[in-house]
Structure formats: C-alpha cells, structure tokens
Amino acid sequence: MTLLDVKNLSISFGGLRAVDDFNISIEEGQLYGLIGPNGAGKTTAFNLLTGVYKPNEGIIKLGDKDITGLSTIEINKAGIARTFQNIRLFKDLSVIDNVKVGLHNQFSYSTLSSVLHLPSYHKVEKEMDEKAMELLKVFGLEEHRDYLASNLPYGQQRKLEIARALATNPKLLLLDEPAAGMNPNETGELMETIQFVREHFGMTILLIEHDMKLVAGICEELTVLNFGRVLTQGPTKEVLSNPEVIKAYIGDE
Amino acid sequence: MKLTKVSKRNLITYGIVIAFYIIIQILNLTGNLSSHMEGLLVPMTYYSIVAVALNLTVGILGELSLGHAGFMCIGAFSASLFSVATKETMNGGLRFFLALVIGTVMAAIFGFLIGIPVLRLKGDYLAIVTLAFGEIIKNILAAVYLGYDEAGLHISFKSFVLQGEGKMLINGAMGIQGTPSDSSFTIAIVILLISLFIVQNLVNSRDGRAIMSIRDNRIASESVGINVVKYKMLAFVISAAIAGTAGVLFSHNTSTLTATSTYFGYNVSIMILVYVVLGGIGNIRGSVIAASILYILPEMLRGLSNYRMLIYSIVLIVIMLINWAPKAIEVREKYVTLLKRRFAK
Ligand SMILES: Nc1ncnc2c1ncn2[C@@H]1O[C@H](COP(=O)(O)OP(=O)(O)OP(=O)(O)O)[C@@H](O)[C@H]1O
Ligand SMILES: [Mg+2]
To answer: A114–B205: do the CB atoms touch at under 8 Å?
Structure first.
C-alpha cells in the first residue's frame, strides 16, 4: 500500500522556485532516499511535507488522508515525524526528557495532576519512563539518560533526535542528513540502527543524505532533486549509475 | 519510596522557606525582631511569590514579561474591592479566602486576555504588550471613581457625590480605603509554599516538559505535536494568577491602596525581573532567595543614608558575578562537589 503520495508540490521564495513540481510515492515499509546537490531543495521538501511551509501548489496524502495545508502539529499527529539537518534538540532538558516530550501525545494525565502530582501522575510518568528507556536503548543512549541533551557528543545528539521522533509513534519517519558530521565508524553504526528501526518498528523511512555509501547501502529507491526539480527516480542502483545524476553531482563540486 | 534528585531538590526549597519561617518566629518570641523588620516580612514574602511567578514566564516558558506588577495590581484591587464591600457582613477567615480566590482569578483572566492575541504570534511581543498593560491598568485604577448608593452602582473618571446612604469603593487617586489587614506573615509563607509547590511540580511534569520544550526549540516542539499556543497560555496564565495572589497579600497588608508607580509601575516589574535574573533564570529557589535578600537589603541599609544605593549596587554586581561569571561558577562547583564528597562519606 502507498503510504505517502505527493503530487505536483511546489513552493517559491520570491523568484526562486525552491521546490518545483515535486512528485514522490512511497510504499509502506520502504526505506527511501532523497538525494541531490546542495541547495537542490531537499530540506525544503521536508518542510513542505511537515507543514513548516505551506505549498503554493500540490497535494500531499498520507495513506488515505489529505494532509495538504495542515499545521506541523496536526501533521505529526497524522503520523509524520522528522529530524532536522541542523540539530534541534531541547538543549536544556535531559536526554530522557527529550524523548518524553516526544511521547507527549501518547500518554496523558490532567493539568491538575501535573500541578498536584496526583496518583495518575506517578502512574503515567512511570509508564513514560519505561517507554522512553526502551527507545533510548535502541540507540545506546540509556546510560546518558540524565545528561543535558546539549552535553551529548554530536553523533549521539543525532541519534537522540531520531529517538524523539520515533517517540511520537509515526507512520513515516523523515531523516534529514542523519549521518552529517559523523565519522565512518559512526555512520556504519547508524546504518545498522536505521535498519533495525525499520524492522523492529515496521517503520517507513524517507531520508536525505549526502553520504553515498550510506544511501547505496540501505535505500531501496531514490529520488534525485536538482534545482528544485526531480531529476530522476527509481531503484537505487539504476539511479546511481544514471549519467545525468553523476553530472549533477560533479557539476556541483 | 525512593526520592529522585528532582524531588530532593524541591524538598530543600520548601525546607529553606520553613526554616526561615521558624527562625523568624523564634526571633519574634524572644523579642529580637524590631518592629521595622517585622513590617518587612509580608512584603518580602509577596515579592518572593511574584518572583517565582515571573520565573515561570521568563525562565520556564522563555518569554519576557514586563507587566507582572500590573497583575499584582489587578489582584490587589479586585480583592480589596471585595473585602471592603463585604467587610461588615462576612466573617474574616472566609472573606480573606474568597479575596485570595478573586484576586487570583481576576489576574488569571487578564493573563488569559493578554495571552490570547500575543502568545499566538511568533516573536517577542509579550514584553512590550505586558509593559503597556501594566502602565494602562495602573493609570486607569488611579483615575477611576467607583461607588454605590441608593440609586445603584456608579463608575466614572470624574468624582461624583453619592445620594443618601452609600459608600465610595474606589476614590480616584486616593484609591481604596479601609481594606482589612488580613495578611499575615504566616499566611504569606503558606501561599509562598503553595506557589512553590505548584510551579516546581509543574516544571517536573508532562505539561512542564511541553512548556520547556517550547522555550528550547519551538519548531522542534511543533514537530513532535506539542500544541505550542496552549502550553504558552497555560504557563503565562498560571504565572499571572500567582502574581495576582501576591497582589492580594499586598493590598490586605495596607489599609490604603493606591495605584501609584511606587507600587505598580513598570519600575516594579523590572525590579521583580532583577530578582529573577539575579536568582538565576529558571532557578525557582534562586528567585525566592534573591527576592528576599534584595528586598530586605536596601531597608537594612537605611541608616547609611547616602551610601545605601552605592552598597546596594555593589551587592547586585557581586551577586551577578557569583551567579554568572564562568570562573565563579567553576569555583562554586568545585566546592559543592568537595562538600558533597565530605558528606557522602
Ligand atoms: N525560507 C526560505 N526563504 C528563502 N529561500 C529559501 C528558504 N528556505 C530555503 N530556501 C532556498 O531554497 C533552496 C533550497 O534549499 P534547501 O535547504 O531545501 O536545500 P537542500 O537540498 O536541503 O540543500 P543542502 O544539501 O545544502 O541541505 C536554497 O536556494 C535555499 O536558499
Ligand atoms: Mg538540506
């Protein structure tokens, strides 16, 4: 079944068509890559999918639901979670609290209970702690649960962002350059984690990445963006051997 | 039940307040408390309460308010109106309880009305709007006349004469006369403890995490489905409400309530902000300590007349350095860990 179906998505900033007639269709359970040179419009595409920007044209469907024009909050509730290219953690909260903010809509007790710490507070907080620890373990962060998020090394901050996104229990996970700034060892570890997340949670994943080893290693299909437009899309091997794609990248460098 | 680090930290805060209360009581019973000092206890406590309230907005929510004196003013006037009007007919304890509720709720309503348009906006508009709000409220309440007589309730910006039996409630610049002095140090301390309980519990809860996530990164909060406007409103309304409660303590501590700049002007809002900043932004316990010390200090230095403000400014600078200078923080943390190791043995 198709999980994400995007048709003719466009947005302009002034005269610049940052994303122009973007189409993509992702099946449930797929691990899909979005690549392209710097400034191609990849992050902007994510911002459109998550309601940070409203598209000038186009339709975004998640499953059967038309989510075009919804707010970021509603889109997250509908089932899309993301990470950010320039990490956006809650820096003065602890590692576990970052994940618990992600769990916010999965668990509930009243504001009165928040203020008075009634029995429902203790019960639900315990459940939230357990769920958050489960997620932290997936990323090997359980020992760092009480660190301030800003005190984590860079690579672990990226992992924490993924954990926080997963905590919202999404159907589709968008990762914006998850390996940026990681050394080859960390990148290798991350690849394994991403595949684990996909299998363990049955997650559909769309990721932006410049690291071609990672892309070739784990993505089944790719879409290549160039100057805001789709250059080509299809199975990873075919796309990566396409001379136009190579030219777009070399032309960039 | 095992105590977590957080609940231990909260308990220490309550402990400090209670210990302070007990020390004062002992000093009082043994006759070591001057009547001048005694008169400072209630104000010191309600300024601590407003500082805690403001820290919720500034340190926990991450928005700037320059109008907390305005919320105090709302609490003070609404509660005093009630107390003056019911003074002859109602029993003291119940009357003061209702006055506290009314002042708190009225301040909350004003917080809500200001928050609805302003907290929706992205950007730092709250500071300017609350600044204006505080000044407008103060000026209106300094100019309004409100009274009742046989013909009913009258409200005007011009003074008027009552017909027959009646009573002036707000008398223009003369304000409200004859508020019963229901505030006491004990009640003020109880309300400080309740405020601390509410704010510290909130910080350490699902709602509190949502509020702090907005402070740390609004875009990321939205991306995980946090209703940003709702939680900003929640924090700000609670903050305004607590400031209102402090206002009730204020007005029931003096028999004449006037809306002057000395008590409700923007300079007072800024003074409270100074307490919060020097106590540590987001540090609830720090707000109480800073407010207490910085309120008492200038009063204690009165004898030194000319040097008073000089010494006060030097103390401000020293506190600021101790709190914020990286070297000082380093030294402080070194000693804290040393002490901890001592006690751990
Ligand atoms: N809010 C905005 N206002 C104006 N221009 C923008 C805005 N956001 C993005 N752009 C422009 O849109 C283009 C695409 O940017 P985008 O960040 O999507 O690229 P990208 O493919 O993610 O690149 P990179 O690989 O460097 O992250 C760039 O030219 C950028 O300057
Ligand atoms: Mg990008």
So the answer is: yes
